[in-house]
Specification:
With 392 residues, this protein is of the alpha+beta class. The protein is built from 6 helices and 19 strands. The longest helix has 20 residues. It is globular.
C-alpha cells in the first residue's frame, strides 16, 4: 500500500464508497456464512499462539528494540493472528467505516476495535498503513545466521476483504517511478471495494461479482526480521525507524503471492533472536499488485521457525515443492531484474556447483523472472528456478 493511498484512506471525503456493486442477495449471503463453517479445522499441533492484541501489534514499522511478544526455540511451531489495515487505520471508527461498506457488525473482530482505540498511544504512530504482529524471538539466533520460516497453514479469520482503487493509486500514482507529466489520466473514482469470501464447490473463493469467483490463495504480504535501518535508505526518513512500505534485505512487504502454504522462506538475521514480524494479510493478488492493494483480509498463519547457524545470506529467498524463488529488490525495476539475475547466478554457483558462465546460461534458458510487486517504493522481481531440471 503506497503512502499516497494511506493518506487518502484516512479521509472520508476522498472516498466514493460504492456499495451497490458489492452487495449480494440474502440467499447468497446465507450460503457464504454457512460455508465458513465448512472450512476444515486445523490438525497442526502448535507450540504457541499469538493473538492480535494491541500490545502485540505495531503500526507501519519494525521496532528493533520492542520487547518480544513471544520467545521460542528453533523448530517450534507458532500460530499468529494478523489484522488487515482495512478498517483498522482510517480516521473513521471501524464499526461505522466497515458497516458503511456492508460488513455486518458481528463480522468485525473485537481486536480491530481494540487496535483502533489504542492509537492514542504515541508509540502507536503509523509509519505506513500496515498492522504488523511481532516480534517473535527465536532462541539462539544471532547476526550472520539464517532464519527459515516454513508456512504450514494460513486461514481466513473473517468472510470479507477490501480492495482499494483510484485514478492515482498503485502504478498510476503520481509518485510512481514510471509516471510522466503527460500520462493520460485514469478516469475512475477512488473506491473501497468490499469483497465477500466463502466456500463454493469445495473451494474457498472471493465472490468478486455474480459472475466472477476467484479461488483464494492466502499469503502474508509481510514476512520480516528486524532490520538495520540506515538513514536515507528506502523507507528510512527517521533514524532507527524502518517504514513497512518498502521491502528489503530483511524481507518485509515483499507481496510475493507464492509465499503461501507449503513454502519455506529464508531471511538473514541482523539482531539477536531474529525478531520475526508478520502482517499485511492477503487472500488473492495478481503479480504486481497494480492497484496498490490485494484482497486485504485478516488471516491466521501457522509457522515453523528453524535457525541455520552461520549460513549468511544477503537477500530473501524461498522454495516451494517445485521451484527455488530468488528475489531482487531495488527502487528501479530494471535494477531489481539485474539484482534478481545476479542472485540466481550466485545461487546456482553456490548450491548447484555451476560456474558463473554456466549459471547465467541456465538462468536465461530455464529460469522465469516475474515481476512480483511494483507499488511499494522498492520493487521486487523473483527468479523461479524449476527444481525438476536437476536430475539429482
Amino acid at each position: 500500500m503506497t503512502n499516497l493511498q494511506f493518506k487518502q484512506v484516512r479521509s472520508r471525503s476522498v472516498y466514493a464508497i460504492i456499495i451497490s456493486s458489492i452487495l449480494f442477495s440474502c440467499e447468497q449471503s446465507a450460503q457464504q456464512a454457512e460455508a465458513i463453517d465448512e472450512v476444515p479445522v486445523s490438525e497442526i499441533k502448535e507450540d504457541h499462539f499469538v493473538p492480535s492484541t494491541p500490545d502485540n501489534l505495531s503500526w507501519g514499522w519494525f521496532p528493533v528494540d520492542k520487547e518480544p511478544i513471544l520467545r521460542i526455540k528453533s523448530s517450534e511451531i507458532v500460530r499468529i493472528n494478523t489484522l488487515t489495515h482495512a478498517g483498522a487505520v482510517q480516521n473513521i471508527e471501524p464499526v461505522e467505516y466497515l458497516t458503511n461498506l456492508g460488513v455486518p457488525r458481528e463480522e468485525i473482530p473485537n481486536d480491530v476495535l481494540d487496535f483502533w482505540n489504542s492509537r492514542e498511544d504515541r508509540t502507536r504512530e503509523g509509519r505506513s498503513g500496515h498492522v504488523i504482529t511481532g516480534p517473535v524471538y527465536i532462541d539462539g539466533a544471532e547476526p550472520g545466521d539464517m532464519l527459515e520460516i516454513e508456512i504450514l497453514e494460513i486461514k481466513t479469520r473473517v468472510p470479507w476483504g477490501v480492495n482499494y482503487t483510484g485514478s492515482t493509486s498503485g502504478v498510476f500514482s503520481e509518485d510512481y517511478p514510471g509516471a510522466r507529466e503527460d500520462d493520460e489520466y485514469l478516469d475512475i473514482p477512488r473506491e473501497a471495494h468490499l469483497i465477500r469470501t466463502g466456500m463454493s464447490n469445495g473451494r474457498e473463493v472471493a465472490f468478486f461479482s455474480d459472475s466472477i469467483q476467484i479461488t483464494l490463495a492466502p499469503f502474508m504480504g509481510i514476512l520480516a526480521v528486524a532490520p538495520q535501518p540506515v538513514l536515507g535508505e528506502p523507507g528510512v526518513t527517521v533514524p532507527g525507524v524502518q517504514s513497512s512500505r518498502p521491502p528489503g534485505a530483511f524481507g518485509g512487504n515483499l507481496d510475493v503471492k507464492d509465499l503461501t502454504v507449503g513454502t519455506k522462506v529464508y531471511l538473514p538475521v541482523f539482531h539477536p533472536g531474529a525478531l520475526f514480524y508478520v502482517g499485511d494479510p492477503h487472500t488473492a493478488q495478481g503479480d504486481g499488485e497494480v492497484s496498490g492493494t490485494a484482497i486485504e483480509q485478516s488471516l491466521s498463519g501457522t509457522f515453523k521457525f528453524v535457525i541455520h547457524k552461520g549460513v549468511g545470506i544477503t537477500t530473501p529467498w524461498a522454495e516451494t515443492d517445485t521451484h527455488y524463488l530468488i528475489m531482487g529488490i531495488d527502487l528501479d525495476l530494471d535494477r531489481a531484474t539485474r539484482k534478481a539475475t545476479r542472485a540466481v547466478v550466485d545461487f546456482l554457483v553456490e548450491h548447484k556447483g555451476l560456474t558463473p558462465a554456466k549459471g547465467l546460461s541456465l538462468a536465461s534458458i530455464a529460469v522465469d523472472f516475474r515481476v512480483s510487486e511494483v507499488v511499494d517504493l522498492t520493487q521486487v522481481v523473483t527468479g523461479f528456478i524449476p527444481k525438476k531440471i536437476f536430475m539429482d
